[in-house]
Amino acid sequence: MTEPDTAAYLAFFRAAEALKDTFRNSWTSRGRRESTAEHTWRLCLMAVALEEALPGIDLKRLLELLILHDLGEAVHGDIPAPLQGPDKTAEERSDLVGLLAALPAPVAARLLARWDEYTAATTPEARIAKGLDRLETVLQHTQGANPADFDYAFNLGYGQDHTAAHPLIAALRRPVDAETARLARGGPATP
Q1: pTM attached to this predicted model
Q2: For residue 81, what pLDDT is reported?
């Protein structure tokens, strides 16, 4: 690797670090705001753990999609699902392009292509990535020490089209939805 390439990679890695301080509209079980990097970590863990239950899925490709799917949020942050406008995807893609600009052009193009693949959900891996993303979000909302006015009912419909697209993710979603419905009615969270 050349010295300019080394500098380019390090610049990209430094810029991506901002994702650790990009907070989501989710809370941990101890009441701390969840970062987008933490969300991404658990998504990757879910994919690795479920590998045997996802025959025919390229795990490396799936992990690439999951790692990249929210990286653009390192620039302008996360927008909670209920507040997302029609331009969210274009803005996030633009932010990602800016982050990737430090990298050698072929690397930037490869990573952007994976992000576009996730967004379009045209491959089996991208459809699973979208389903896992939605599942992880609603799961975190059932685990989090959320504010008193947290809208659990919104989660009952959130991402259903993506989680229903694969039978395994749909099966994992059912008990999470039951927990969400209990919380929406004011019931206690399951430890």
Answers
A1: 0.92
A2: 66
